[in-house]
């Protein structure tokens, strides 16, 4: 009897959690797909529409805005999230995130030598946002450096030029 109650409670928690995840992602408009070193060629470089790839680690991607803290997400990631919420680029641009595996950063060389995608794309900072069209890099935004508003303006300016 006690076991069946616990099973019901666990099932309810799982269902509620799943619904929360589904609705919190779908309210953002477009959802970024994960891309890996195995799928990068097909998903990004061979994409029939422009692709934006956000290259970062899991911790940086999952950060929530925390005032007065160095734990804030970068302006670039917040700008991408704002752009996605507006749905202006739905079906015109594909958004991907490439999560850099732990241990990819080489402290001795101060670079991402241990990751084939980062090495191939010459990624120096985390996060880096790269816009691709027809398999070519159109623009690369590295690091956080400016405000969300300025990051968003720069990215949208590039996107408008690309999709014309």
Please provide a brief summary of the model:
With 164 residues, this protein is of the alpha/beta class.
Name of the CATH superfamily: Glutaredoxin
Radius of gyration: 18 Å
User: What's the main sheet like?
Assistant: 5 strands, mixed
Strand content: 15-25%
Number of helices: 6
The coarse silhouette is globular
CATH topology: Glutaredoxin
- Count of the separate structural domains: 1
Mean pLDDT: 78
Which structural class do the helices and strands define? alpha/beta
CATH class: Alpha Beta
Helix fraction by DSSP (H/I, runs of at least 4):
40-55%
> Which regions have little confidence, pLDDT < 50, spanning 5+ residues?
23-30, 65-71
| Element string (H = helix, E = strand) | HEHEHHEHEEH
Give the name of the CATH architecture.
3-Layer(aba) Sandwich
Give the N-terminus to C-terminus distance in angstroms.
64 Å
Strand order of the largest sheet: 1-3-2-4-5
């Amino acid at each position: 009897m006690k076991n069946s109650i616990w099973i019901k409670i666990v099932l309810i928690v799982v269902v509620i959690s799943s619904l929360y995840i589904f609705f919190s992602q779908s309210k953002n408009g477009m959802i970024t797909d994960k891309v890996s070193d195995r799928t990068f060629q097909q998903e990004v470089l061979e994409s029939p529409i422009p692709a934006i790839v956000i290259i970062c680690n899991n911790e940086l991607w999952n950060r929530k805005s925390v005032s007065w803290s160095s734990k804030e997400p970068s302006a670039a990631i917040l700008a991408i999230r704002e752009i996605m919420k507006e749905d202006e680029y739905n079906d015109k641009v594909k958004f991907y995130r490439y999560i850099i595996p732990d241990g990819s950063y080489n402290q001795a060389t101060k670079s991402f030598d241990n990751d084939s995608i980062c090495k191939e794309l010459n990624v120096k900072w985390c996060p880096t946002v790269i816009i691709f069209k027809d398999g070519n890099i159109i623009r690369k935004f590295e690091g956080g450096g400016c405000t969300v508003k300025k990051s968003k303006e720069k990215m949208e300016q590039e996107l408008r030029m690309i999709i014309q």
